[in-house]
Specification:
Blueprint: H1 26-31, H2 42-50, H3 61-77, E1 83-91, E2 98-111, E3 116-119, E4 124-126, E5 130-134, H4 136-139
Length: 143
């Protein structure tokens, strides 16, 4: 008597390929099982929970004073059309916290009503979110 799980009678047979039906693409074959995924979106939720955000930095009185001095330099020299680099906090839209971004550009104007800096290319940064300003290029002399 032969073992039912031996498969020796069929193991070396060539793979059958239908002459009437075209082979299904691998993506289509996988898609037919997709509706049976019991935890759809679970991996996305885990990744979102694991994503790390930073808190908004609290500037000391000294740091705020330096930042105010840099704003004064910018206001007095805005006509020079030189680049400045601004670091600012961007709140996360999904969870508490956010991240610091840096942007370099030429300031078109400072909107004191809406309290934001508007750059030549249309980029806007709220003043209350600014953590640092690099005004060194603004102060450079032409050589």
């Amino acid at each position: 008597m032969t073992d039912l799980h031996d498969y020796s009678d069929i193991i070396d047979l060539p793979h059958h390929i239908s002459t009437e039906h075209p082979q299904m693409k691998i993506g289509d074959r996988a898609a037919q099982f997709a509706p049976f995924a019991a935890l759809t979106g679970h991996n996305d939720a885990i990744e979102e929970t694991a994503r790390i955000t930073d808190g908004k930095p609290e500037l000391s009185e000294y740091e705020l004073e330096i930042l105010n001095d840099k704003f004064k330099i910018i206001s007095e020299n805005i006509h020079k059309q030189k680049e400045i680099t601004v670091s600012y906090f961007v709140p996360d839209i999904r969870k508490e916290g956010g991240r610091i971004e840096t942007y370099t550009g030429i300031i078109r104007r400072i909107d004191e009503v809406e309290k934001k800096i508007i750059f030549d290319d249309g980029k806007e940064v709220f003043i209350e979110m600014i953590t640092d300003l690099d005004t060194s290029k603004l102060l450079e002399n032409k050589t």
